[in-house]
């Protein structure tokens, strides 16, 4: 998609008429003239003859300069629309932080244009003005001084080429001295070098959309009499068409997922040029580039970045580079892993373990081995200790799991889990063993686990009653064998009770 927008300053009237002529010319010659037919068939052309119709109505034919009060140049609210756009270098940060909207203070015409520019996938744009004869390219703002210092965009070379495309094909513009008061080398100039424009539409296009826009000043006299218009058409006809044809330079293609579905808003990154373009809802993109060799890749949220593609751009037809992006994998909490991390970690199984887990019951010997093995494999985050012995002399093992175990930290609360107090209630015992394994295996690869182990000292006692467990038979549903300890005492009735009195 390409666009020409004219008459933003209501009293600069040449572009307004030229766009009507251009529309007529394209329509009259479509299907007859090969070049026009090709251009119209391959290009979505939008022509806006007047962006400031109110200002135009106040302007006077034959007036070469703006009126003293700028009515005509400005819109009906006396606002210069080419100073009314958000500026990338002069942001109203404080205002926006206090809850203001980026649209506050913008004129109707500006808001309509901002919306149009931001929502339609324009590739190339021309902004037609008057009062000089020159092609002025970005940036318009961002230079240190009000004039005579260039403010270069990352696509400076491309913009120069585009500006020259128009100027070189314009018999007066290319001389650089069409009007008595100005001299422009080759008929082109960096906008900020000429004079700084803050809040202009040209920079807004580049900063906020995929469109590359250049400002074309078409006549020394802003609103020449109608009798001059054939001359202006002759001067600008080739430039107007040639410029539109530049929408087809560089690289274009589609960004799709592995099912062939288009990916919207994928970013196309050209290495060495700090300005990206994005894909449309159909997955299409166009990246205007000068002839040369480039490394390009595509990225999209939720997908792994594509490989870098080395592409040679020739003049004339665009090079086609299609990207297929693979959906990024999600871990068990739905957190996106970056590509880099994923390459270093092993896949986890459906239970969240890296090493296959045998789901079985662990008697005392098996449990002891299990805990010692974990401690051996994860010495930096585990500490195995015993708080004492059972009646039968079995260790009452506790495993501390945390970053830097065994060290007190005032920032880390301590938490404990106790399992298997009743020797015949075994699920908790096994679940705690699995939890220990899960925490150890996922530390530093799983964000949530890592956060827990960095911030909590967790003490896990899989079995408080190992003696009871040993006499219990797997598969038992009813019965009390194994519930108590080796002396037949229910440990969960053996603690001092806060309501206990000596009388009872
Ligand atoms: Zn203007």
Automatic annotation (TrEMBL):
Gene3D superfamilies, alphabetized: Carboxypeptidase-like, regulatory domain (2.60.40.1120), Zn peptidases (3.40.630.10)
Entry GO terms, CC: extracellular space
Gene Ontology molecular function: any one: metallocarboxypeptidase activity
Cofactor(s) the protein needs: Zn(2+)
Keyword annotations: Carboxypeptidase, Glycoprotein, Hydrolase, Metal-binding, Protease, Zinc
GO biological process terms on file: peptide metabolic process; protein processing
PANTHER family for this protein: CARBOXYPEPTIDASE D (PTHR11532:SF73), PROTEASE M14 CARBOXYPEPTIDASE (PTHR11532)
Name of the protein this chain belongs to: Carboxypeptidase D
Naturally occurring in which organism (per UniProt): Melipona quadrifasciata
């Amino acid at each position: 998609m390409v666009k020409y927008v004219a008459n933003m300053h209501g009293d600069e009237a040449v572009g307004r008429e030229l766009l009507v002529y251009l529309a007529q010319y394209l329509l009259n010659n479509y299907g007859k003239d090969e070049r026009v037919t090709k251009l119209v068939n391959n290009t979505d052309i939008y022509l806006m003859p007047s962006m400031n119709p109110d200002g135009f109505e106040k302007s006077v034919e034959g007036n070469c300069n703006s009126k003293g009060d700028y009515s005509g140049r400005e819109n009906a609210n006396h606002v210069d629309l080419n100073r009314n756009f958000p500026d990338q270098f002069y942001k109203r940060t404080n205002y926006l932080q206090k809850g203001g909207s980026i649209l506050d203070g913008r004129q109707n015409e500006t808001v309509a244009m901002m919306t149009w520019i931001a929502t339609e996938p324009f590739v190339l744009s021309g902004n037609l003005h008057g009062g000089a004869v020159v092609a002025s390219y970005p940036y318009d703002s961002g230079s240190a001084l009000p004039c005579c210092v260039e403010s270069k965009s990352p696509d400076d070379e491309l913009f120069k080429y585009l500006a020259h495309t128009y100027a070189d094909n314009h018999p007066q513009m290319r001389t650089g001295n069409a009007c008595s008061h100005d001299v422009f080398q080759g008929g082109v100039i960096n906008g900020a070098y000429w004079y700084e424009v803050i809040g202009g539409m040209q920079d807004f296009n580049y900063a906020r959309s995929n469109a590359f826009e250049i400002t074309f000043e078409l006549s020394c006299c802003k609103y020449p009499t109608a009798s001059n218009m054939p001359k202006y058409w002759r001067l600008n006809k080739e430039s107007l068409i040639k410029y539109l044809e530049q929408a087809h330079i560089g690289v274009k293609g589609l960004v799709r997922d592995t099912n062939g579905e288009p990916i919207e808003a994928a970013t196309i990154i050209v290495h060495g040029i700090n300005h990206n373009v994005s894909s449309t809802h159909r997955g299409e993109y166009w990246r205007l580039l000068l002839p040369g060799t480039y490394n390009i890749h595509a990225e999209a949220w939720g997908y792994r970045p594509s490989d870098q593609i080395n592409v040679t751009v020739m003049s004339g037809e665009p090079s086609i580079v299609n990207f297929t992006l693979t959906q990024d994998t999600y871990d068990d909490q739905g957190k996106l892993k970056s590509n880099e991390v994923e390459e270093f970690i092993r896949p986890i199984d459906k239970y969240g373990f890296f090493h296959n887990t045998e789901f079985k019951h662990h008697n005392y010997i098996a449990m002891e081995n299990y805990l010692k093995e974990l401690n051996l494999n994860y010495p930096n985050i585990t500490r195995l200790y015993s708080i004492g012995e059972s009646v039968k002399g079995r260790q009452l093992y506790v495993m501390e799991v945390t970053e830097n175990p065994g060290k007190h930290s005032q920032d880390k609360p301590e938490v404990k889990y106790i399992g298997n107090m009743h020797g015949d209630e075994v699920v908790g015992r096994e679940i705690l063993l699995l939890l220990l394994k899960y925490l150890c295996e996922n530390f530093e690869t799983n964000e949530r686990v890592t956060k827990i182990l960095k911030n909590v000292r967790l003490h896990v006692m899989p079995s408080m009653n190992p003696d009871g467990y040993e006499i219990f038979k797997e598969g038992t549903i009813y019965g009390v064998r194994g519930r108590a300890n080796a002396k037949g005492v229910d440990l969960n009735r053996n603690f001092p009770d806060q309501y206990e009195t000596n009388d009872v």
